[in-house]
Each structure stands twice: as structure tokens, then as C-alpha cells.
Amino acid sequence: MIVIKYGGNALPSDTSTDPVLEAIADAFLDGEQIVLVHGGGPQIDAALSEKGLGKEKIAGYRITSEQVFSVVQSVLSGQVLRAIVNYLIGSDVNAVGLSASDGGLIRAKKFKPVVDGKAVDVGLVGEVADVNPMILETLITEGYLPVISPVAVDENGIGYNVNADLVAAAIGGALRADSVIFLTDVAGIYRNWPDQSSLISEITIDELKEIAPSFSEGMIPKVAAAIKAIDSGAFAVRITDGTDLSCVLDALDDRGGTLVSA
């Protein structure tokens, strides 16, 4: 069982040909059980820019008003999700598209980042409050490949944009995945970002926790997601370059990038 996070930065601008999705499709058709979680940051930025929205930020966090969230949801659970599902179906994969809360999969809660020692309200930005993988277990057993957008609702039905890395981590943990693969736009975890010679090929979760505070900004979200995935039940995490097909093929064959093991 593999949970794959396909980052928005790794998604091609034109999905008429997508060798990464083809590789995922081939692995699935060869018998691998796969759940795919996607991001969509660049696509959201482009859509908001067209509408002149999303310019207000606090400490790097975009203020997600109802108007901004409407665009975010449309892009993630509409444009990007449908493009991926349609592509996989065209590659003979029995794919099913879900938003993160469908079927009770994830319940969100409001995320308030701490800035200068104070919790700040950044609008409709959420974090994972609870996970129930039953719908995924049912779909997987019936031979489907679930594709999940990182839009979730709270217990009152209020929608939130949730970090896709943390959605993938939570799902990977709940399913006790053999591996959670993060396909991003870098080769893995760098001890001294962006020094490419400092790429870590393999590390245990305990070792990663020890050095986690030393990472610079670009590596922090990836390290946090890796730790979350294993702490919540996944057996291993692999972070690799989703823009390089050879790296993706290696990851699907349990090689390359950065391996974080329990």
C-alpha cells in the first residue's frame, strides 16, 4: 500500500501527456494499491491572480476569505482533481476523485498559525482534526485508485483549505501505508538547503526529529509531513523529485530520494 502526494509544483502545466501519472497508472495496473493526494499551489496562485484576489498575507500566510476559498476549492476539487482523475481513467485506471472530507475521511479544524507569540486568524485555512479511512479501505478493496484533493470541512460543514502534505501524511498513517511518497520539486531532504551535496539519502524518524529544528524554511514542511506520517502509523516515507520521471520510477521501486524509516 502506497500513499502518494503529487505536489502542485510537480504537476505539469499541460496534462495532455503526463509521464508521472503514467508511471503511477502502470504501478497500479501491475497490482500496487495506491492512494493519490494532490496539491495545487501554482494553479491556485494563477487563478487568484486572474481575479485580483489573495494578495493579503500575514507572515507568509495567505488570508483565505470566503471569496478566496471559493477559488481554491474550485481549482483543487474541480480543475486539478478532475484533470488527474480523467487522465488516469484514460490510462485504464479505475480512478475515483474525492475531496478530503468525502465519506467522513477527514474532519478539519481551523488552523491558526502562531506569529510573534500570538495565534493569528488567517481565514479558511484548516488542519487535520480526525481521520477515518473506511471509505478508502472500501474503495481500495474494490479495486479503485482514490484521488484526493486537500479540501476538507469541519463538523459544521465549513470548508477549509488544508496543507496537502499533511493530508497525505494523515491518510498514510491511518492506512498504515508501507510507504508515503512525497513527489515534490526537490530531490529530497537537504541537511543544508539548498546545498545539493547535503542531500540525506536515508534517516530514521528519531534521527530526523533530533535535527528537525536545524532545517531552513524550504525543508520545514517536508520534514514535518514525514514525521507526522510515521508518527501516525505509516512504516516509511520517501521524498523525491516528482518533476524527474527517473526519480519517480525509482521511488515506486523503493529507491532514491530521501528515505525516512520508522
What does this 3D model show about the protein?
- This protein is of the alpha/beta class.
- The protein has one domain (2-261): 3-Layer(aba) Sandwich (Carbamate kinase), CATH 3.40.1160.
- Helices cover 35% and strands 25% of the residues.
- It has an eight-stranded mixed β-sheet with strand order 5-10-2-1-13-15-16-14, sandwiched between helices. It has a four-stranded mixed β-sheet with strand order 6-9-12-11. The protein has a two-stranded antiparallel ribbon with strand order 3-4.
- Helix 1 links the parallel strand 1 and strand 2.
- The mean pLDDT is 93.
Q: Report the structural category.
A: alpha/beta
Q: Rg, please?
A: 17 Å
Helix residue percentage: 25-40%
Domain count: the total is 1
Shape: globular
Strand order of the largest sheet: 5-10-2-1-13-15-16-14
The total strand number stands at: 16
Number of helices: 8
User: How would you name the CATH homologous superfamily?
Assistant: Acetylglutamate kinase-like
Poorly predicted sequence stretches spanning 5 or more consecutive residues? none
What is the makeup of the main sheet? Answer: 8 strands, mixed
CATH topology: Carbamate kinase
What's the level 1 CATH class? Alpha Beta
Tell me which CATH architecture applies here. 3-Layer(aba) Sandwich
* Mean pLDDT metric: 93
Which strand-content bin applies to the residues?
25-35%
Distance from first to last alpha carbon: 16 Å
Catalytic activity: N-acetyl-L-glutamate + ATP = N-acetyl-L-glutamyl 5-phosphate + ADP
Subcellular location: Cytoplasm
Site (Transition state stabilizer): 5, 222
Domain Aspartate/glutamate/uridylate kinase: 1-241
